[in-house]
Amino acid sequence: MAKYYVNKNAQSNGDHEVHKTGCSWLPQAENRIYLGEYLSCGPAVREARQFYSQVNGCYYCSPACHTQ
After folding, report:
1. What pLDDT was estimated at residue 57?
2. Which of 5, 6, 47, 57 is most exposed by smallest CB count within 10 Å?
3. Are 6 and 54 in contact (CB under 8 A)?
4. Which residues contact 17 (CB under 8 A, 6 or more apart)?
5. What's the rounded Cα separation, in Å, for the pair 68 and 64?
6. How many CA atoms lie within 13 A of 46 on its CB side?
7. What does the DSSP 8-state code read for residue 42?
8. DSSP secondary structure letter of residue 21
9. Phi, psi (5° rounding) for residue 6?
10. CA-closest candidate to residue 30, choices 56, 3, 5, 11
11. Is the pTM of this model over 0.90?
12. 10 — pLDDT class (breaks 50, 70, 90)
């Protein structure tokens, strides 16, 4: 299981990206919300939608949940 976070700061397209611990693009602690521990990114993305309506998985650490 991995710990997942959502970035408080939106990307230029409005997406709030979901990252897991160890990702090179994981935001600083003050710029992220802890989502919990999950076996995959899907449940983490669903949890992130409790905070933001526009959510996407990180291209690098959560590619299965990343959409174009």
Report:
1. 97
2. 47
3. no
4. 6, 7, 11, 25, 55, 56, 57, 58
5. 12
6. 5
7. H
8. T
9. -115, 140
10. 5
11. yes
12. very high
Would strands 2-7 and 32-38 be described as parallel, antiparallel, or unpaired?
antiparallel
In contact, 65 and 18? CB cutoff 8 Å: yes
Picking from 53, 57, 39, 52, the residue whose alpha carbon sits closest to that of residue 3 is 39
Quote the pLDDT of residue 11. Answer: 95
Q: pLDDT tens for residues 14-61?
A: 999 999 999 999 999 999 999 999 999 999 999 999 999 999 999 999
User: What are 35's two structure tokens?
Assistant: 């989502």
Task: Specify the pLDDT at position 2.
Answer: 97
Q: Where are the alpha helices (DSSP H) in the chain?
A: 41-48
Q: Which two three-digit tokens encode residue 25?
A: 């693009």
